[in-house]
Predict the structure.
Amino acid sequence: MAETPNRWEGVYRSKEEAETSWFEDRPQVSLELIAETGAGKDAAIVDVGAGSSRLVDCLLEQGFRRITVLDLSETALRMARARLLLDAPVEWVAANVLHWQPSGRFDLWHDRAAFHFLTEASDQDAYLRVMDRALVASGHAIIGTFAPDGPASCSGLPVAGYDGALLSERLGSGYQLVRSLSHEHRTPWGSVQRFHFGLFRKV
């Protein structure tokens, strides 16, 4: 995540959507956790490191109308955007989250499998500073990562694995863990990757 977007541009230019290990036809765990926050349809939601995820499609179907989708790869964002109506209420942001300066604040921060690419403490700190500035008081953060017994790398990059305790410690006292959830993601070719999702509330 902290590097230039060339690697991710290459991934999305060379593979079909369903050829990536992280592909989900419907991101059910994310949708359930978003519902658990009680967010209304006018809640401001950002999906960080979204790639071409179909979460935005599902949120639009549910009536959400203040959605921001952020990723390093412009190609990935174009893939997602091409599925939607031209006037869909979505802001598309091609940026590195570590240096992002959002124009507004959010009720809900969602990240499935971006934070775990940050293996350096300085990058993790930068990410968390951006998240903290972006979230309103009592806002929610959903962070999905590989579990401690999940893969040690993804797309040739090392990753950091977390459970609820490790993620809570990393986020610090400004965030209360609301729910800790283990999940087995099945890739398009049938292998299983162990994930952890943490739902947090900003204190």
Q: What stands out?
A: The chain has a mean pLDDT of 93. The radius of gyration is 16 Å. The chain is about 30% helix and 30% strand.
